[in-house]
Amino acid sequence: MTFEVWLRGWWRARRTAARRDEGMTTSEYAVGTIAAAAFAAVLYKIVTSGAVSGALESVIGKALDAPF
Q1: For the residues 10-38, what does the mean pLDDT come to?
Q2: At a CB cut-off of 8 Å and minimum separation 6, what does 24 contact?
Q3: Secondary structure of the chain in the HEC alphabet?
Q4: Fewer CB atoms < 10 Å away: N or C end of the chain?
Q5: pLDDT single digits (tens) 32-57
Q6: What sign for the dihedral angle of Cα 16, 19, 22, 28?
Q7: What pLDDT is recorded for position 35?
Q8: Dihedral sign, CA of 23, 26, 31, 34?
Q9: Cα atoms in the Cβ-side hemisphere of radius 13 Å centred on 27
Q10: Whether residue 21 has pLDDT greater than 60
Q11: What's the average model confidence in pLDDT over 6-24?
Q12: To 5 degrees, how large is the angle CA 33–CA 35–CA 37?
């Protein structure tokens, strides 16, 4: 068997496997949902912290006081 024949067969098998994998399973959705919720909680804690809140207020205040 030559390399080209082997490679053609390998690509055919990969395409077939990719077609069978049509979407996420329920467990993958559950893990993705939990990860997204955890990430959102971390972002919320960071944005509502004193340092970040003060920096955001400063930026917004400077933007509103900008001369036109």
Answers
A1: 82
A2: 32
A3: CCHHHHHHHHHHHHHHHHHHCCCCCHHHHHHHHHHHHHHHHHHHHHHCCHHHHHHHHHHHHHHHCCCC
A4: C
A5: 999 999 999 999 998 888 888 888 88
A6: positive
A7: 96
A8: positive
A9: 0
A10: no
A11: 76
A12: 70
At 2, list the tokens: 């030559």
User: What span, in angstroms and rounded, lies between the C-alpha atoms of 46 and 28?
Assistant: 27
Residue 68 is encoded by which pair of tokens? Answer: 């036109």
- 45: Cβ–Cβ under 8 A, 6 or more apart, which residues? none
Average pLDDT (3-26) is: 77
In the prediction, which pLDDT does 26 show?
82
Question: Residue 11's closest CA among 19, 29, 55, 60?
Answer: 19
The single-letter code of the amino acid at 43 is L
